[in-house]
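JOB MANIFEST
job_type = single_chain_structure
chain_count = 1
residues = 473
[input]
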Amino acid sequence: MASSRRSLQCLLSRVCRETRRNYGALPEGTTPSSSQQLISLEYEFSAHNYHPVPIVFSQAKGSSIWDPEGNKYLDFLSAYSAVNQGHCHPKIMKALQDQAEKLTLSSRAFYNDRFPIFAEHLTSMFGYDMVLPMNTGAEGVETALKLARKWGYEKKNIPKDEAIIVSCCGCFHGRTLAVISMSCDNEATRGFGPLLPGHLKVDFGDEVTLEKIFKERGDQIAGFLFEPIQGEAGVIIPPDGYLKAVRQLCSKYNVLMIADEIQTGLARTGKMLACDWEQVRPDVVILGKALGGGVIPVSAVLADKDVMLCIQPGEHGSTFGGNPLASAVAIASLDVIKDEGLAERSANLGKELMDQLLKVQQQFPDYIKEVRGRGLFNAVEFNSKTLFPVSAYDICLKLKERGILAKPTHDTIVRLTPPLSISLDELREGSKALHEVLEHDLPNMRKAKPEKASPPGSTICDRCGRNLYASCD
C-alpha cells in the first residue's frame, strides 16, 4: 500500500511540475500557494472517493478559474451544472452577504422571513402547489422516493411494505444507499450490500418495456424516477416522444412521474426544465445544483397538494432545509436565470457549440464516435479502439494544459457543460483546444500503446446483467 501511495504521489508531482502556459494574471488579493502541496494534503487527509483532474481552484469569476500559481483556465464543467449562472455572480453574492449579516439559520422548528418568499417564488415559477426544501441533490432524490412511497400507500392503496419504484438503467441520482439500490453502477454498489428492496429497472428510452412492467406490477408501483437527459451516463438524450409516452403511461397506470432535474433543470438544456422540450409536466420535480447558484447547497422537491400533503409533521425533515440563507440565495439564483435569459442563452450558445464540435468530428472522424447535446449540455464520445490506450481522462489532462477544464464520464466520454454566462469567444476556445489535443497530443499519446494490450471490454451490471457503457465499438 505504501508503494502504491508513493506511485500516486509521484504521478501527481509530475503532473503539477509540467510546464504550463500562464493563462492570465492572478486576481488581486490572492495569496500564492503550492498546488502540489494542497493536492498532497488532500490525498493524505481526505477519503479517496474522487479521482480529480489535478488542478487546484483558488479563485473564480464567471467562466474563469485561477489556480494558486496564477494560471487562468476556462470552466467547461460548471460543477456539474451547479454554477449555471457563472462563478460568484455579483447579484447572488450580494444576496448571500446581505442575508448572512441578518440571519443564517432558524431550523424549521420556527418560521423565518425568507423561506416563505422562496417557496412562493419557486412554486409560482414552475406551476406546482407546494415545495419541500432540502439541501443536496441526493437529499432531494431521497425525499421524492419517500414521498412517492407515502403517496402509494395513502392514495393508491398499495399493500403495506410492497411499494415499488421503477427507475432507468444508466440514470444517476446520487450515492446514498437508497439511490445506489436502484443503480446499475458496479462501482457504486459493490461492497455496500445488502441493498434496499423495492426497486425495478428498465432501459432508458424503452416505453414498451416500461408499460409491460406497469401492467405486470402496476398495483405495487408508486413512482417512475428518471433523468430527462442522462448526465453521468454521457449526456444521453431519449428518443423523440419518449417523455410524452412516459407521461401517458404514468397517468394510465396511476404512477407518479418523478423527474430528476437536478442537473438538467434551471436552463441547462435551453429550457427551464428538460421536460419542457416535450411540454411534459411531471407529478414530482427534483431541483438542486444551480438552485444554489454555486454558492450554497439548495435542493427542492415540487409537487401538487394531493401528493405533497401525504407527508405530515414529523415524518420527514432537515435542520438546514429551507434555511434563510439558502432561501435568499435561491431567490437570487432564480432571478438571475430569468432576468438574464439564461435558458435562451443556453439554447443559442448550445447550437453554436454543437456546430463547432461537429466540425471537429468531421476533421477527426476516426477518433470521435458521436457528438450529442441539448443547449449547453454536451458530450463528445470517442471511439474506444482508436482512442486506446488513451482514456477520456487523459484527454481532459491535455485540455487542462491548454486552459480548458472538463471532466470525463466513463472511459471514452468527455462532457462539455460551461456556465451559461460564457461568452462566444470563450466557447470557441474550448472547441479549439479540443481540436489541438486531437491534432497534436493524441497521436503522441497513442504511440505508447503496449504491444499486447487491448481495449477494455464491456461492463456487465452485477445486478441485471445488462451491458453498461459498452466500450467496444
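[summary]
The two ends are 36 Å apart (CA to CA).
The longest strand covers residues 368-374.
exit_status = 0
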